[in-house]
Structure formats: C-alpha cells, structure tokens
Design a protein that fits this description.
This protein is of the alpha+beta class. It has a single domain, classed as mRNA Triphosphatase Cet1, Chain A (Alpha-Beta Barrel), CATH 3.20.100.30. It is 25% helix and 31% strand. It contains 7 helices and 9 strands, in the order E-H-E-E-H-E-E-E-H-H-E-E-E-H-H-H. Strand 7 and strand 8 form a beta hairpin. The longest helix has 17 residues. The chain is globular.
C-alpha cells in the first residue's frame, strides 16, 4: 500500500499501554468523534503495516538520549509501508522539544535510498515530487545523519489501526499492535518473519496525537477508561531487545530510568 505524503508540524503526543478489551471499548467510543484514516484498508479493523529502520551512531546515542530522558532530542528513521518498488520511502525527523513533538518528512524514491544513507547528499530528483519544503526536510535529515555518522541500526515493525478527525489530521488516535524488531542486514525492505523478534509488550500501545488543544471528548475518554499516561519508545524497546545479549552495549531499562 503506497501512502500519500503529508508533512506534519508541531503536535502533542500522549501514549498509554492498555489491554485488548479496553482497546476495543476505546475504539467504539472514539468512532463517535473520529473516522478511520484515509489509508485504512477495507477490513474489520482497518489496520496496516508500519515498518521503519532507525538510524543511529555506533554507540546508539540517539537511543540513549531517550533512555536518559533528555528533554530536547531527535530520532531519524526511514519508513515504508510495503515492498512495492514504486512506493515512496519516507525520510523522517522526529524531534522532541520539551513536551512538543515536531516532525518533518520527505517522500523519497526507493532507488535513491541506499545512496542517501551512504553519502548523505540529497538531490532534487530523489523526491517523488519536488517541493522546497520536502527538499528542506530531506536536506536536514541528511545533515543530522552526517553529523552523527548515522547508519541503519534497527528495524521496528508493527500493525497500526488509526483514526482521525474529519476536517483535518489535527487529531489522530492510533492503536499499535504486534511490535517486532529485526536487525538490519544491508537491504532495505520488510524483514522476513524468521528474522523478527517480538519484545515483551504487555498490551496495545494507544496514542493520542493533537495540535493546539486537548479536546473535551479526549479528556472524558481518559477519565472514563482510567487511562494512565506513560512513555513507550518503540525504538528503544526494540533496540534493547535486540542488543540485550551483546556485550558491546548495556542500556538501563527505560522504566527504571524514567519511573
């Protein structure tokens, strides 16, 4: 499934870890205010694959920035939704400035990805469709990757069920399930099942994403379902799971650091 591209600016993100019965109840509640997002397939849950490879340096400094709770930090990821050669690959910067999340992304031609990750030198023709905004996002991605000598480190793979407001994407609600990690083996694509590892995740990851203000119905939903906001960084979870057996890196458990 090739997803259309939309640039995203600053927003707030709240995460909750819930069980499956509560996820189904929240879905029913949220459908009074939101509709399935435009990418949802015509299936009972409308979920779709999200597959990202995260860039980091040899010491996993970007991962460690999350583990140690640095307030101003960023992540670099390359995201794809299928293995179709004609589908775009999204180069994304996710920056956290205190409590605000800022995202920039660029839709890149698949044949340009390997060169970009090796040289960090973008060309206008690398984009699916050139715009100055997207090219600026791609340039900045490459600048940040070059500054840390970033390399593809970890695949993060899961299924997403997403809902959004009808007038815009100013409000989004997502359920992420079946989180899996895989090592990067040199080829860009969706890792085969035999290479994936499932970290221990006690439930479904619910995310509320909004710009400007927390809606009244969202506040009611949090109260009715007794939701307890907590951090759940997928990249850190997957990186820890993959590298826990390796002597070259020891990461403290996220919950111990940020309790």
């Amino acid at each position: 499934m090739a997803l259309a591209h939309r640039l995203q600016s600053s927003r707030f993100e709240l995460k909750y870890l819930i069980d499956e019965p509560k996820a189904r109840a929240i879905r029913d509640f949220a459908r009074s205010y939101l509709v399935p997002d435009e990418y949802a397939p015509d299936t009972p849950t409308g979920d779709y694959l999200v597959n990202s490879v995260y860039l980091d340096d040899r010491d996993l400094s970007l991962c460690r920035a999350t583990v140690t709770g640095q307030r101003n930090r960023f992540k670099l990821r390359v995201r794809m939704y299928d293995d179709n050669p004609s589908s775009p690959v999204f180069f994304e910067i996710k920056r956290r400035d205190s409590n605000v999340v800022l995202k920039r992304r660029a839709a890149v031609r698949r044949e340009a990805v390997d060169r970009l990750l090796q040289t960090y030198h973008p060309r206008r023709t690398d984009l699916m469709t050139f715009t100055s905004e997207e090219f600026g996002a791609l340039e900045r991605f490459c600048e940040l990757a070059a500054a840390i000598r970033g390399r593809a480190q970890t695949y993060v793979h899961y299924w997403r069920e997403a809902y959004e407001s009808t007038e815009s994407n100013a409000v989004r609600l997502t359920f992420d399930r079946n989180l899996q990690a895989a090592p990067v083996d040199g080829r860009l694509g969706i890792p085969p099942m035999r290479r994936r590892f499932a970290p221990r995740v006690a439930g479904v990851v619910l995310e509320l994403k909004f710009t400007n203000r927390f809606r009244k119905w969202m506040r009611q939903m949090v109260r009715v379902f007794d939701l307890d906001h907590r951090s759940f960084p997928k990249y850190v979870t997957c990186a820890q799971a993959l590298r826990s057996h390796e002597a070259r890196i020891t990461l403290p458990h996220y919950w111990e650091v940020n309790a």
